[in-house]
Amino acid sequence: MDRFGLIGYPIGHSVSPALFGAAYSGRWSYDLIEGPDFEPLRERFMQDYRAVNVTAPYKEDAYRTADILSDEVRAIHASNLLVKTPEGKVKAYNSDYLGLRTLITGAGLKAGDSALVIGCGGAGKAAAAAARDLGLETSVANRTAGKAGETAQQMGVKTCDFFKAQSADIIIYTLPCPVENIERFDANVYLEASYAHPSFDREALSAKGRRYISGRMWLFQQAVDGYPIMTSEEPDVEAMKKIYGF
């Protein structure tokens, strides 16, 4: 029987098993593969699983140890989805990137619009790559200017000053917590990565006529776009929505 799972540490709080179970009516198992070192977890994947999602802190390890890289992983240098090929190789994908492309397009953004990505970690790089590949004029900002410069060079985008007021058609906020004077980031659309600790006030943005896309929606969309790669079957999206109450 095909088996699937999630590699990370710690991940006891993850909703991924429930989400995957809803997506495929419980036909396949989806296990939490947890531990403080990546290599033993990778060995379990190779022995027992057809495909796995990968979360913090192992997305860069997944990228480094894969045999085949998708285009987005080659650009981002991080993977959250590993799939065995029929030849026994491991191919790395990044469904954060795939989900972001879907969300950005669904929000009405188009080539030539501006995107500002806040943060230069794995999620920030996925966001920069997704916005860039959709033709948006993309910039990155980070609390450490040197990190922003490195990321901008790697991703082929621009930088801007994190500590000054900035505006864009869409702001993609990937830091894990709010920063002082967060109101200096102004946009028509706000999309953020954090689903546990939101940085922006959704109701306040709505009152101003702004659109807000939560980190929960990002997590949901990357699953919708990533699960077919894992299983070769489309998921039951309506059943998945019920897990989040969408």
What can you see in these coordinates?
With 246 residues, the chain is of the alpha/beta class. The protein has two domains: 118 residues, Leucine Dehydrogenase, chain A, domain 1 (Rossmann fold, 3-Layer(aba) Sandwich), CATH 3.40.50.10860; 117 residues, Rossmann fold (3-Layer(aba) Sandwich), CATH 3.40.50.720. Helix content is 40%, strand content 23%. Strand 8, helix 7 and strand 9 form a beta-alpha-beta unit. Helix 5 packs across helix 9. The radius of gyration is 18 Å and the shape is globular. It starts with a strand and ends with a helix.
Order of neighbouring strands in the sheet with most strands: 2-1-3-5-6-4
Pattern of helices and strands: EHEHEHEHEEHEHEHEEEHEHH
User: Quaternary arrangement of the chains shown?
Assistant: single chain
Strand content: 15-25%
CATH topology of the largest domain: Rossmann fold
Mean pLDDT: 95
Gap between N and C termini, in Å?
Answer: 31 Å
Q: Superfamily at the CATH H level of the largest domain?
A: Leucine Dehydrogenase, chain A, domain 1
Number of domains: 2
**CATH class descriptor of the largest domain:** Alpha Beta
